[in-house]
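Try this one yourself first.
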């Protein structure tokens, strides 16, 4: 509140219920039982229909407990078509069980505050028909069982049980919720899900995969090319959960060829050969070799615990012998979250 209209706003602390209807019923009884309330609402029997009476009253008295009471007011009473109408205004100072009570009461169908500065066009306050209308309001604190915006239907509502309904909401701070449903939502930045995620359809990189062909060089015969070289794959340790590295089969083979022979060399069927090695962070973890058309292969599932650092895998294929001819499939690496829920193996 503001004292005398000049000081800074100061807070008046109180403890109240949020039952506005109950308070109104309570005040109704308090007002009608007060001396001023009785005086304003008391009917005077007018002698004829369509009559009018203007009365100013002023009283000061001492009750049985030697307590002083005083009131002043003015009221207008009229009758029309057998109905009684009253309008009045009054001030009082009365002694009650709770102590001194000052009152300012108005009895009217419509109460309005009008600012002459705006040409009496827009009232700043109107009370009529059990409703209050205000043009512009500043409240330090508001307690209301239900808040509803304008519009039909309302664009915003908040009920006493905490149900909030809004057509549009822009929230720049934090949102905390224990349950709910979201439709057509876009998460523009990072999102952390600490519990179980269940999705009917998923787009994105829950599983990451890369693939690359091995380097090649000119073969022994004609315009052929033969695999020879290394493919390197690095998986960054940038997730806070354990993952698995899945390497589908890499298949490689040489060829059989006919050697016509010469001199002391009788000739015959000969075979090209290949070797294959895999290193993890520089340490050899697999070595294979093959001759001729019989294929060799390598596949693996490698655990990648979170927080243990990045993993670098080197896949190297190389020919053995003097004749270079053969084949190898592409190197494919799949990285996925390590989980076994919903899967059993025996």
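Now uncover the answer:
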């Amino acid at each position: 509140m503001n004292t005398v209209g000049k000081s800074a706003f100061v807070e008046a602390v109180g403890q109240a219920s949020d039952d506005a209807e109950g308070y109104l019923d309570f005040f109704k009884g308090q007002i009608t039982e007060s001396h001023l309330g009785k005086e304003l609402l008391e009917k005077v029997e007018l002698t004829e229909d369509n009559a009018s009476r203007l009365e100013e009253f002023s009283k000061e008295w001492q009750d049985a407990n030697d307590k002083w009471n005083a009131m002043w007011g003015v009221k207008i009473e009229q009758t029309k078509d057998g109905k009684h109408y009253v309008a009045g205004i009054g001030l009082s100072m009365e002694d009650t069980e709770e102590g001194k009570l000052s009152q300012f009461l108005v009895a009217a169908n419509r109460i309005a505050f009008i600012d002459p500065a705006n040409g009496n066009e827009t009232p700043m306050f109107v009370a009529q028909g059990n409703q209050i209308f205000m043009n512009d309001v500043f409240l330090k604190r508001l307690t209301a069982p239900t808040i509803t915006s304008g519009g039909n239907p309302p664009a915003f509502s908040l009920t006493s049980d905490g149900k909030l309904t809004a057509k549009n909401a822009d929230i720049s701070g934090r949102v905390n919720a224990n349950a709910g449903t979201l439709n057509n939502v876009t998460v523009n930045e990072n999102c952390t899900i600490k519990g179980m995620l269940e999705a009917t359809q998923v787009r994105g990189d829950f599983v990451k995969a890369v693939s690359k062909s091995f380097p090649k060089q000119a073969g022994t015969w004609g315009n052929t090319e033969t695999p020879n070289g290394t493919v390197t794959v690095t998986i960054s340790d940038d997730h806070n959960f354990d993952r698995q590295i899945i390497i589908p089969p890499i298949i490689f083979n040489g060829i059989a060829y006919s050697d016509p022979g010469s001199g002391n060399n009788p000739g015959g069927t000969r075979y090209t050969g290949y070797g294959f090695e895999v290193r993890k962070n520089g340490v050899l973890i697999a070595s294979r070799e093959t001759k001729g058309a019989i294929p060799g292969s390598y596949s693996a599932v490698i655990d990648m615990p979170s927080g243990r650092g990045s993993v670098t895998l080197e896949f190297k294929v190389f020919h053995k012998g003097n004749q270079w001819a053969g084949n190898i499939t592409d190197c494919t690496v799949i990285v996925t979250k390590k989980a076994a829920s919903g899967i059993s193996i025996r």
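Discussion: Residues 11-150 form one domain. Residues 111 and 127 are 5 Å apart (CA to CA).
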